[in-house]
């Protein structure tokens, strides 16, 4: 059984060796650029850790695991464009470094490459893998559309938000973990529990991401701190603040949300002060912990031996304590 660091090194080595194409350079260089920005490689690592519970021959699971990471970066490239985000992992986003059209087209090629990797799955598992991936990819797109719609909606509930992140973020993490069991030929019940474990990890992870967007260290976070506030994103922090705020605080937040011209830093400071007054950091952290605890329960429901799950649990602990 290979350890987390060994698996991460293997994933990074394989990504570095990937050949996406050369000509025209403007099409393929952005792909190499975003894939070379690093990141936690969380999703392919989950696939390999999950597969390794049942089978030590991880080379079998490597191509579909890499497909998951490539798909994730494809969604980031298009997501950054839709949000007009300036930074990704501390570097200029693809649409900023090149332009919008290149970002769209390079992302499209990445999706084609995803399927090139997925079809390397063994024939007896291929149809199931493709069906599960297509369902997951559709959920991710649905979640992204909801996220964009929420920006201009005056009434979004906390349940609406949680449903959105379950699709946009958690579905792919759930697929990643379940994929390991699927590739290993495990029973449906085990695969579903692994998937639900991943979904709950994804929920907790996104809530931590919401916290870091406001309270993260810019040098570690790698994205524009306060970007969600600037873009009027309906995050858990904002929605919970409206639920707990007094009349004056609600009015203040509403005024900021309706402003078309404003100083970014001033807006971020104003919301952060209200979040501090309402102890939103603590409230959101508690909600994230709830999902991480739920994830542990699904892992226990697999009925798998405790010692076979050590690395999955270790990685979960790392994610629940993340600061970037």
Can you describe this structure?
- The protein has helices spanning 4-17, 25-35, 42-52, 62-83, 94-97, 100-118, 123-150, 158-183, 188-215, 218-221, 227-230, 236-244, 247-258, 264-277, 280-301, 310-320; strands spanning 87-88, 91-92.
- It is 74% helix and 1% strand.
- The two termini are 28 Å apart.
- The mean pLDDT is 93.
- The chain has a domain at 1-124: Orthogonal Bundle (Farnesyl Diphosphate Synthase), CATH 1.10.600.
Determine the mean pLDDT: 93
Main sheet: strands, sense, barrel: 2 strands, antiparallel
Structural class: mainly alpha
Q: What is the terminal-to-terminal distance?
A: 28 Å
Report strand order across the widest sheet. 1-2
CATH fold topology of the domain at 1-124: Farnesyl Diphosphate Synthase
Query: Shape, please?
Result: globular
Name of the CATH class of the domain at 1-124: Mainly Alpha
Q: How many β-strands, per DSSP?
A: 2
Query: Architecture of the domain at 1-124, according to CATH?
Result: Orthogonal Bundle
| Share of helical residues | over 70%
Rounded to an integer in angstroms, the radius of gyration calculated over CA atoms is: 20 Å
Low-pLDDT parts are none
Strand content: under 5%
- Helix count equals 16
How would you briefly describe this protein structure?
The protein has 324 residues and is mainly α. Helix content is 74%, strand content 1%.
Keywords for this structure?
mainly alpha; 324 residues; two-stranded antiparallel ribbon; Farnesyl Diphosphate Synthase; 16 helices
């Amino acid at each position: 059984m290979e350890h987390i660091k060994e698996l991460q090194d293997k994933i990074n080595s394989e990504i570095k060796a990937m050949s996406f194409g050369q000509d025209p350079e403007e099409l393929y260089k952005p792909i190499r650029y975003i894939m070379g920005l690093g990141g936690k490689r969380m999703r392919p690592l989950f696939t390999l850790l999950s597969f390794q519970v049942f089978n030590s021959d991880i080379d079998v699971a490597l191509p579909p695991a890499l497909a998951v990471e490539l798909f994730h970066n494809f969604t980031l490239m298009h997501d950054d464009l839709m949000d007009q985000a300036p930074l990704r992992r501390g570097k200029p986003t693809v649409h900023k470094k090149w332009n919008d059209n290149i970002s769209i087209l390079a992302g499209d090629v990445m999706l084609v490459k995803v399927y090139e990797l997925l079809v390397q799955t063994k024939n007896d598992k291929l149809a199931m893998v493709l069906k599960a991936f297509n369902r997951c990819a559709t959920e991710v797109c649905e979640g992204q559309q909801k996220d964009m719609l929420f920006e201009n909606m005056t009434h979004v509930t906390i349940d609406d938000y949680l449903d959105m992140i379950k699709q946009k973020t958690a579905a792919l993490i759930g697929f990643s973990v379940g994929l390991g069991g699927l590739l290993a030929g495990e029973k449906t019940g085990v695969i579903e529990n692994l998937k639900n474990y991943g979904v709950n990890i994804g929920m907790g992870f996104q809530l931590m991401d919401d916290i870091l967007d406001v309270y993260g260290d810019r040098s570690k976070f790698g994205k524009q701190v306060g970007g969600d506030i600037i873009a009027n994103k309906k995050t858990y922090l904002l929605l919970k603040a409206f639920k707990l705020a007094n009349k004056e605080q609600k009015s203040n937040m509403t005024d900021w949300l309706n402003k078309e011209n404003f100083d970014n830093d001033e807006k971020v400071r104003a919301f952060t002060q209200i979040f501090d007054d309402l102890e939103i950091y603590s409230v959101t952290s508690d909600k994230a912990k709830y999902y991480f605890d739920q994830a542990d329960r699904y892992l226990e429901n697999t009925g798998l031996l405790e010692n076979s799950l050590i690395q999955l649990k270790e990685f979960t602990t790392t994610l629940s304590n993340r600061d970037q």
